[in-house]
Write a structure and sequence with these properties.
Blueprint: E1 2-4, H1 21-25, H2 29-47, H3 60-64, H4 68-81, E2 85-89, H5 95-104, E3 113-117, H6 127-134, E4 141-144, H7 148-157, E5 162-167, H8 173-186, E6 187-195
Helix pairs in contact: 2-5, 4-5, 7-8
Length: about 200
């Protein structure tokens, strides 16, 4: 589910599939290499666990990682909006983070910023962050290993502003409610808030 933020009290949005072919044509060499690296790393994480990563249990990577097609939609949606700053709630094995990084790489080496909030990366044996480092994206991304319900109010107090947000952390109603409350304030008017697993009760 995608919500487009606005200054009005009521706002609605729809999911739109877009292609990134025209964006790739205008990317510089740095961005193209980062997109290629992030994309191949994301696909490897989705289909087989790289030797350097450790799964929590058998089949966990395939259950938790975004399918390749979902990652492509996330990447293309962000490419269409051309964000320079994205905040992501939840990292796990890093498949969505790599999809986001594919889009952010288009902003260039000095402009893009990807803030990832995940208090439970240790439960994934650091696999998500290892995937980001392995893709050469550690300079673009930063990981805050605290609960989002604690981090987001602090970011708001610090004056942080994002162009988009991706929410795939806690699946408990009250935690997601708090995340969305603060993301509504943190994401600029007209920006995007994208939810995963929005069919959960």
């Amino acid at each position: 589910m995608v919500a487009q933020t606005s200054t009005s009290r009521h706002h609605r949005a729809s999911v739109v599939g877009v292609t990134c072919g025209r964006h790739r044509a205008i990317l510089g060499e740095w961005a193209a290499s980062k997109i290629s690296c992030a994309g191949s790393g994301r696909r490897a994480a989705c289909w087989q666990l790289p030797a350097r990563l450790v799964s929590r249990s058998g089949g966990d990577v395939q259950r938790v990682c975004k399918p390749v097609a979902d990652g492509d939609v996330l990447r293309d949606l962000l490419l269409a909006e051309n964000p320079s700053t994205v905040i992501e709630i939840g990292l796990a094995y890093g498949s969505s983070a790599l999809a986001i990084a594919e889009a952010l790489a288009a902003a260039g080496p000095n402009e893009a910023r990807h803030v990832i909030v995940d208090a439970y990366q240790k439960q994934f044996h650091g696999s998500g962050w290892a995937a980001i480092v392995g893709a050469g994206l550690a300079g673009l991304c930063s990981l805050v290993q605290e609960r989002s319900q604690i981090v987001l109010p602090r970011l708001l107090d610090d004056g942080f502003v994002a162009d988009a947000a991706f929410v795939d952390g806690s699946h408990i109603f009250h935690n997601v409610f708090v995340d969305l409350f603060y993301l509504r304030e943190l994401v600029r008017p007209g920006g995007l808030v994208i939810l995963d697993d929005c069919s959960y009760p």
